[in-house]
Amino acid sequence: MPADSSLVARLRALPSLSLAQTPTPVEELARLRDALGGGPRILVKRDDAVAFAFGGNKVRKMRLVAARAIAEGADTLITCGGVQSNHARVTASIAARMGLRCVLVVNGEPPARPTANALLDRLTGADVRYVASRDERAPAMDAIAAELRHSGGRPFIVPLGASTPLGAAAYVQAIGELLDQSPAPDVIVHATSSGGTQAGLVAGCRLHGLATRVVGISADDPAGALTARIAELLQGVESLLGAPAGALRGDIDVDDSFVGEGYGIPTAASDEALRLCASTEALFLDPTYTAKAMAGLIARVRARAVGEHQTIVFWHTGGQVGLFA
Questions:
Q1: Residue 84 and residue 100: Cα distance in Å, rounded?
Q2: DSSP assignment of 156-181
Q3: Which residues pair with 102 in a beta bridge?
Q4: Residue closest to 1 by CA, chosen among 242, 178, 203, 210
């Protein structure tokens, strides 16, 4: 079924900052397939290869979200995450490039010696404020925004992961990009956490009439909570693009069986995935997100859950800066 041309036009018309060099590469992982004893054709969509700010899925999302912030006259971006947040790093980098202030609310202890993303946040000049827990981040962002408005500032709050309908729309666009590079895959596997990337991929597949199964491997939250969040985002994407209710909603497939002991804690399967991709393909993953997602892909290939004559795309969402934490 061809894509609805009016929805595609609205999607393309969304204001965006020119920060990411797209399309990102699609490469075949033949040596990884051989190491797994055969199975489906394995491709990787390399959003880790975006040059700006060490790349990753948050660059795609923030091109749209920051464009809206600037259009609304914002002078400060406020967002949140963990000490080693990829999203915080990208937000701080975009603020620096666009001449905006940036305030990051991060849960955790200030590192004695900043490394990886925390170091990059400092180098960009972001104002990093620490809170004790995840639950304290949103109230802290609201309080900071109120403080800035009181002093005449124009803050713009970016929710966790830029996982808003507008941020998710970046991955609706990305499905069109993938289809310009390769036939539609049978399965897409990626890391899912705040839900925006998966919502966009699901909506993009629906928009283009694809039977592709989108599998999100959770990095932290239970499948039920993530599924509810993604469903809400899909409704928001429909509203954003003026699509009929249900037009962009498809099956939401979240697998939380690779989380292990928790967020950011490697597992035996994720350690194997990280080393196997590096040693067979010089493809570098990160311990928190993409290594667990690749572990999910590897398990499916070994279990012959994807047919030998099918194609599976691993959507590399970046995060490899985490290797240096």
A1: 21
A2: EE--GGG-SHHHHHHHHHHHHHHHHH
A3: 77
A4: 210
**Helix (H) and strand (E) counts in the chain:** 11, 10
Amino acid in the structure at residue 144: I
Q: Which two tokens stand for residue 207?
A: 């928009």
pLDDT tops 80 at residue 203: yes
What is the rounded CA–CA span in Å between residue 260 and residue 5?
43
Q: Is the dihedral of CA 108, 114, 117, 119 positive or negative?
A: positive
* C-alpha distances out from residue 74 to 101, 153, 166, 294, Å: 9, 8, 17, 38
Please return the burial class of 76, using the count of CB atoms within 10 Å of its CB with bins 0-12, 13-18 and 19+.
buried
Beta-strand runs (E) in 181-317: 187-192, 213-218, 253-255, 311-316
Rounded Cα distance, 76 and 288, in Å: 28
Whether the CB-CB separation of 185 and 43 falls below 8 Å is answered with yes
pTM: 0.97
Residue type, 85: S
Q: Are 55 and 106 in contact (CB under 8 A)?
A: no
The DSSP bridge partners found for residue 68 are: none
> Residues 86, 58: contact at Cβ < 8 Å?
yes
Active-site residue list: 85
Identify the CA nearest to 162 among candidates 212, 199, 133, 210.
199
Task: Give the whole-angstrom CA distance, residue 277 versus residue 86.
Answer: 21
Calculate the CA 148 to chain-centre distance: 28
Answer whether the bond into residue 23 is a cis peptide, omega within 30°: yes
81-119 residue pLDDT tens: 999 999 999 999 999 999 999 999 999 999 999 999 999
